[in-house]
Design brief:
Blueprint: H1 2-5, H2 13-22, E1 29-31, H3 40-47, E2 55-57, H4 65-68, H5 70-84
Parallel strand pairs: 1-2
Keywords: Hydrolase
Organism: Salmonella typhimurium
InterPro entries: AB_hydrolase_fold
Length: about 80
């Protein structure tokens, strides 16, 4: 299973699609630059069903974005929550 994560996000795709479709809770993807963990191919798949206003791309950071820029991540999360409350 771990190896599969390097070629896609098999356990994330369907639940993410359902969250977006249900529109019951705020969803905001905050992603860093493409990496072996979240490839460009996965990002292109997300582009097909995640509205652009629900995806924030921070190309200065990698897949450890919450550890690399915790304050920025927190700011973006609070901004999203304030818009939807």
């Amino acid at each position: 299973q771990e190896l599969a994560n390097y070629f896609g996000t098999p356990l994330i795709m369907k639940p993410l699609q359902q969250l977006i479709a249900d529109n019951k809770v705020p969803v905001q993807l905050i992603i860093g630059k493409p990496s072996m963990f979240i490839s460009q191919q996965v990002r292109q798949m997300w582009d097909t069903f995640v509205p652009s206003e629900q995806m924030t791309v921070l190309n200065d950071y990698g897949h450890l974005l919450p550890l690399e820029a915790p304050e920025l991540c927190a700011k973006l999360i609070f901004q999203k929550l304030n818009l939807t409350s």
